[in-house]
Design brief:
Elements lengths: L1 E3 L5 H10 L5 E6 L10 H7 L11 H10 L10 H15 L5 E6 L6 H11 L7 E8 L13 E2 L5 H11 L6 H11 L3 H6 L6 H6 L9 H13 L4 H12 L5 H10 L7 H6 L3 E2 L5 E2 L2 H10 L2 H14 L6 H11 L5 H16 L3 H13 L4 H18 L2 H12 L5 H18 L5 H12 L4 H18 L8 H9 L11 H14 L1 H15 L6 H17 L3 H18 L2 H17 L3 H18 L6 H10 L2 H18 L2 H18 L2 H13 L5 H15 L3 H18 L2 H14 L2 H15 L5 H17 L3 H18 L2 H13 L17 H11 L4 H8 L3 H15 L4 H9 L9
Parallel strand pairs: 1-4, 1-5, 2-3, 3-4
Antiparallel strand pairs: 6-7
Helix pairs in contact: 2-5, 3-4, 4-5, 10-14, 11-14, 11-15, 12-15, 15-16, 16-17, 17-18, 18-19, 19-20, 19-21, 20-21, 21-22, 22-23, 23-24, 23-25, 24-25, 25-26, 25-27, 26-27, 26-36, 27-28, 27-29, 28-29, 29-30, 29-31, 30-31, 30-42, 31-32, 31-33, 32-33, 33-34, 33-35, 34-35, 35-36, 35-37, 36-37, 37-38, ...
Amino acid sequence: MVRGEAGVGKTALLDYLLIHAAGCRIARAAGIESEMELAFAGLHQLCAPFLDRLVHLPAPQREGLGTAFGLRLGEPPDRFIVGLAVLSLLSDVAETQPLVCLVDDAQWLDRASTQVLGFVARRLAAESVVILFGIRDPAHHADLAGLPELRIGPLRVADARALLASVIPGRLDVSVRDRIVAEARGNPLALLELPRAWTPAAFAGGFGLPDAASVAGRIEESFRRRLTPLPDHSRRLLLVAAAEPIGDPALVWAAADRLAIPAGAVGPVIAAGLLEAGPQLGFRHPLVRSVVYREATHEDRRLVHAALAQVTDPTLDPDRRAWHLAAAAAEPDEEVAAELERSAGRARARGGVAAAAAFLQRAVGLTQDHARRAERALAAAQASLQAGSFDAALELLTTAEAGELNEIQRALIDLMRAQLAFVSSRGNEATPLLLAAARRLEPLDIKVARETYLDAFSAALFGARLNNGVGLAEVAAAARTAPRPTDDEASSADLLLDGLVALADAYDKAIVPCRDALRKLSSDTIPPQERLRWLWQGGVVALELWDDESAFSLSHRGVQIARETGTLSELALALSAHIPVLVFCGEISPAVSGVAETESVEEATGARSAPYGALILAAWRGQARRARELIEMTTREAGARGEGIGLAVSEYARAVLCNGRGDYEEALAAAVSASEHREAVVENWGLSELVEPATRTGRTDLATDALNRLAAKASATGTAWALGIEARSRALLSRDDVAAGLFGEAIEHLSHTRVRAERARTHLLFGEYLRRTNRRVDARRELKAAFEMFSAMGMEGFAERARRELLATGEKVRKRSLGTRDRLTPQEDQIARLAGDGHSNPEISARLFLSPRTVEWHLHKVFGKLSVSSRKELREALSTETRTAVGA
């Protein structure tokens, strides 16, 4: 980003770069203030010369970009699919010739273009592509945050004097020179323009009066003074050019003709140095456009926009025509408002929700009928909510409330206010709002009402121990009385709601309805987007039932659907649900990749969430420093926003970490905290960690209570996972004559599950029990099994504990040697694993939001680090990664 105040020379520097970009292909775009509401307008400027290369892109990217540019009809594309498509397109262009992309006046880019270009710019690594943004201070674009910056400061005094002397003929009084230099403050455009405001007498004697205005204000004043003496026709021609953002001479002159502006009007404008003639009519500086437009009367602006609307093709450019019509309207106009509404629909279809919100917001201002005004305000609020403009959404909801509303519209306002509370912070504020909205919707739209009850359950699950008087029990009590469709008509949302209500009533009675919901969600007959919306809650239900198969399949499918559909807004949540399941299953490498992918998604979307996956992964791997940092951060941030589940997960992770290290006092306190509030899922996890430290610290009362709670759940659900954890916990509390049998029973149960990490834990506990009872030979067998499993899974903390126990039995053990993946960065490891699994570079690039060239670049480094030269050798290197050996 080339940053600086107006007139400091950003555009001049970009033009200088073009002169010296020998051998490079050039693409240019410029933000235009009046086009800020037209979705992808700036991006289309940049990419238009390359659209013939769309055929080279993968189908989802080709279709997404084509839809965004209005080249095809289809589902609204996710903006990150559009971003990946642009990255691939620019990378493809640069294969044959380096590409320089210049984007000037980026502060005026439309939001959709800025989001995409920021996404692309952060992912340029190995491509022969450079993107330079010229952006005016003090403008700030969050979508471009973090890019390298070149800040252009003022000229030094000597350079300022030299520039001034180059543009002023004749003698220049020293005092005058110093006055101009001082007032220009090193701004080049000010040095070029301010002298025009001085009289010859002032140049000679320095009698000009001081002016305290800002540099930008002084420059604008200079342009304003040049406007004043122009003929009326010339001033109006300038206004037409200022209101027509494309700079198309045909359009400008067509509108000028309708306004009876003669052809000779352009001469004085060019002579005054305000407009530059050429293939496109361009202003000497963007500030000229601003001054011309602001100086015009409201009536003149309306006349000019009306003329431009008349000459803009309603078929080829309906949205720009609608925008001109809106600017030309002097009073509410239903016909124009309807045009804007149609433009909003087209913008939404292209994925431009921010543009849709802007069109609808303008339509609201042009709507006189109170009922239609409220309806459009609601639609604009919904679009603003989807675009992440929460303040605008709240303001529009207030506008809608002031209109004539029917009952369902008032209910929808309540729903949107609740949704705003939930998406802006997954804390405890949203639950009562969602609950109230669901109750209000019941007599009006029972389907939406039941879905809102389900959302209220989600909010209550996040709020957990920090719910303020409205939690799962209150949501269940309200949802229980809601009308229910017949079994044949019940959707996955209906069945999930039934299951969650039942879980809030009695665990044993909830098993059947919960399993019905899981079967429905597992069905491929449900549309992907509908499944994606509810798969997170389905995963919660599966984990609550200790159903490892359903938990794995549903969370895995959620990640797949989010990737396939490009729904990045849901991908981070899907990954956070899948990563803990991968950890329980001992799939550490995919879990590490999942954490890296989550970070990529969050960096791409700008949406940050609690790092639950990374937290649980670090705890099970025994990475004490990282785990404690994540625990501290999660506890602090979750507590601040009222997200009680974050406190529960943090305590569970602390318990796992400390149990792995043998720090039983801290593990006990953490496990008690994780389980005492009986929060969904985390209660199960906390109980499974509690019995071990309780027995090791002599707190058999706590251990017995935890066992009883585990036994009640295991008896009800009957899954191998639950029965295995119960048997293991019972063994820890039992006499020596029965403990061995219970440990064996636990291992047998867990061998029929996916949760290899818990089976390894059971081998470890069994081996420790056998060593303490002096059965060393039997102890070695169990401890070897645990050590080898933990080492293979990459759970170093538990592996080290098993190694120490083996040493205590007299066994010879050597530590795990450095594995191949330990030499790779997390992103290299992720790319290596995907390549080893047979994915192509384009497939990997789509998964990780990188270009194929960047993937190739990373793979080249991976090959060098692992001393391999092919993907076949890479697969072999990864599969034969050096592991710890156990002596005989």
